[in-house]
Specification:
The chain is an alpha+beta fold. The protein has 14 helices and 13 strands.
């Protein structure tokens, strides 16, 4: 007679070691030589029974319960809190779509029907695709943890959403935008807008730029960080986003002028300009018992967007649906309001890429300049400009052949 049991590890709540119930086993053979083999078989059968019981117990957890736990365990593992928040949005979609369906009961057809209902309720293709990718990841985690045997997402095919056509400024409007910007009094936000236009930067990259990243001598700009919406300096979006790009004489002259003006502005507050000073800066003044103290800060993205909207409305690149105020400046009427429609900062990035491709710049150069992780991203986003180049190439080739007749 033997007593069989297995160690089940530590209880995560109490820290005590657990073990399975003891099971008494009587050998059937009268020959002692056979008892060890019978014990091995009995242990194997008991293990299979225990594992099946554990799978059944864990598989009875709902999809939403498992998804929420998956998300909670990943807190603090993301580079950006915004990325964790974005995953939380996908988790909420998953919970709404599958509610109390058990992990062990979820089938591919259930997923297809849930997606069809989501489309009817107005979920966008992009949001649905992101939710699908997250669900597949969560269910694969359940497979890896031996809670379910197969990932029901695997047979469900959901094509990537097509990029909506970007709306860059045409060449004539881009030139007019530059003219308007050069007429604008030099300021940190105007300098930031010039960086967006001339370099195709992301807004966060522009806001994180310091004078140490700029070299007038080498005519380069180094992108190594970004200032995000949670008001934190972080590494760029991807490895390829860390880059050094060339800058033109127009930008060099503009930045040099702004650097001189900024130095004087900071000096009035007893502050020094150095390589760590943001190019697009703000000055925060705090009053304490000791008096007023000024510090240099990065400008908040929402604050910059507000200035950008006003600039666009003042110069005919946008409008406010609800006008809340008007004033005169240098004999020109300006309006302020809410319900903005028009040009947005990110459109300047698309303007740079589209105009470069239109002028024959190769995709690899544009990818490196914009900091896309892959040239495939550049190809997908700017396919319309590349197609236009293809037509130009066809017409050019026809003209070449015509000359040889």
């Amino acid at each position: 007679m033997y007593r069989l049991y297995f160690s089940l590890g530590k209880d995560p709540e109490t820290g005590r070691y657990l073990r399975s119930p003891k099971r008494t086993f009587h050998c059937k053979s009268k020959n002692p030589k056979n008892w060890s083999k019978e014990c091995e078989n009995a242990l194997s059968a008991y293990r299979t029974e225990l594992e099946g019981s554990r799978k059944h117990e864990n598989g009875s957890r709902s999809v939403s319960e498992y998804a929420e736990n998956f998300h909670a365990l990943r807190k603090g593992t993301f580079k950006s809190p915004l990325a964790y928040k974005r995953e939380g949005d996908y988790i909420r979609h998953i919970c709404a779509l599958f509610r109390d369906i058990r992990l062990s009961d979820l089938r591919p057809d259930d997923i297809r029907h849930a997606y069809a209902d989501a489309r009817k309720d107005g979920m966008s293709d992009g949001e649905l695709h992101g939710t699908h990718v997250k669900l597949r990841q969560i269910l694969q985690d359940a497979v890896d943890n031996e809670i379910i045997e197969r990932n029901p997402c695997t047979p469900v095919k959901l094509s990537k959403p097509t990029y909506r056509e970007r709306k860059p400024l045409p060449t004539k409007d881009a030139s007019r935008f530059l003219t308007c910007l050069l007429k604008e009094p030099l300021s940190s936000k105007a300098a930031g807008t010039m960086l967006l236009l001339q370099c195709g930067l992301r807004r966060g990259e522009m806001l994180g730029m310091t004078w140490g990243d700029y070299s007038a001598e080498n005519r380069t700009l180094k992108i190594s960080k970004q200032y995000t919406n949670d008001k934190t300096l972080r590494p760029p979006k991807s490895k390829m986003s860390r880059r050094t790009i060339a800058v033109n004489e127009t930008l060099i002259d503009y930045l040099n002028q702004w650097k001189s003006i900024q130095r004087k502005q900071l000096g009035r507050y007893g502050l020094d300009q150095n390589e760590s000073t943001p190019i697009v800066n703000g000055i925060k003044v705090v009053t304490t018992d000791d008096g007023k103290h000024a510090t240099i800060v990065n400008i908040d993205g929402h604050n910059f967007d507000r200035w950008f909207r006003d600039f666009c409305v003042d110069n005919g690149f946008g409008s406010y649906e609800n006008v809340t105020g008007t004033f005169l400046r240098n004999g020109k009427k300006h309006v302020r309001g809410t319900g903005y429609t028009g040009l947005v900062p990110h459109a300047l990035r698309h303007t740079q890429a589209t105009l470069l491709i239109g002028e024959g710049a190769d995709v690899k150069t544009v990818q490196a300049r914009l900091g896309h992780a892959s040239p495939n991203t550049t190809l997908a986003i700017y396919s319309h400009a590349i197609e236009a180049n293809d037509r130009k190439a066809a017409d050019t080739f026809a003209r070449i052949l015509a000359k040889g007749r």
